[in-house]
Amino acid sequence: MFLVRTSIAALAVVLSLPMQSAFAQGFVQIDRLTHFDISQNYDRVGFGSSMALAGNLALVGAPSLGGTDGAVYVVRLEADGSLTYLDQLAPGGDTYRLGRTLDADGDWAAIFELFDNVLIYQRVGDGFVLRQRLQQLPSQGGIIIRGVSAIALRGDTLVIGDSSAHVPGTGGAGAAAVYRRSGATWSLEALVPSPAPGNTVNFGDAVAVSGNTLVIGAPDADASDGGATGAGFGRAWVYRRSGTSWNLEATLDGPADDKAFGDDFGRSVAIDGDTAVVGCRVCNNQAGAPSNSGSFHVFRRSAGGSNNWGRVQELSASNPSFIDNFSHALRLRGNLLMATAPGSNTKAAYLYTRSSGGTFQEVAELTSTDSSGSQAQFGISVDFDGVRSVVGAHLFPDQGPEANRYGAIFSFTNPTVLACRDNFDAIFCNGFEN
Q: What's the pTM?
């Protein structure tokens, strides 16, 4: 006990900083793993186009392996941030773009297999075991799920968005299927159709879930004010679970004075507790910022009234550039938020922390030392565990023939964590990370 207390006290003296200040020291790239490292071939397979962490294991999609077969790989994120390839999942049977979209949380993972099939895996040790195959996704009350656009998994809730789902009277307005886990079995709980099918396009293109709250994006929908200013701007909706039903709680919209057709509001969404974040890849809120640089919007459940989900903040990258696609990928965990800009010439992903006042501030920019331009699409995917992060670049390397851009993932961590592991108790460092 004395040794542990001594380590904690010494660390406090060395740092003399709260966690947010430690983040401000920046992140360093620790490792890079390419598909060539795994396979020793140069095929353009899209490695890193999707990725999620289940604890210290990363599931990495390569949906173009074999042309259209696809693959998903298991990679271990080591304590120091280095990457170790472990295995390739082998679900058996036909696949089409396997791993095009996926998500993981705790010991469970959900992976797109083909058309309207989703694979459910459970982590066992340093591997994953196939537990269930959700085939021919359901229809109910005239709502027909026809494909898989997005997957979100948190706790015992799985959400599958289908932007082409049939909704009565409107054709493919979009919907989401919600599954609930009991033991090791996942069963359909509800179908959630577009709430405004007459002016909604691509509802279900982005989904996120936290506890009993669900956010669904429709990046091509008309905004709530309609008319020329809101047409095709995009929207998102918040649903709350009651029993086995999901009821509409709020509509998330952009600012009234900044809406344009094709802004892509709702192309990405994230939620944790009472905070939701909606990406707007083509918005730009900074004065003098290049056009189409992108931003994200933060909503709080209690802002403006109980369950009102008022918009409290809009943020852009600190160094925006034309067609950054900033906010293409979002990850929100507690007071930490990551947003990526895969179109950026600076090849960046950005870390934000929430201050005691409740607002997010950019504290770190993660850049790759191995990629010389935006063509690698660094930031096409992202996830993090504590202050260790993994970023995908599915067209790496961005030099040489396009056919040889096989893809890569990059790991980053904060220097404070490395110093902690080198000089202090490892158990305490694990706590510090998170």
A: 0.89
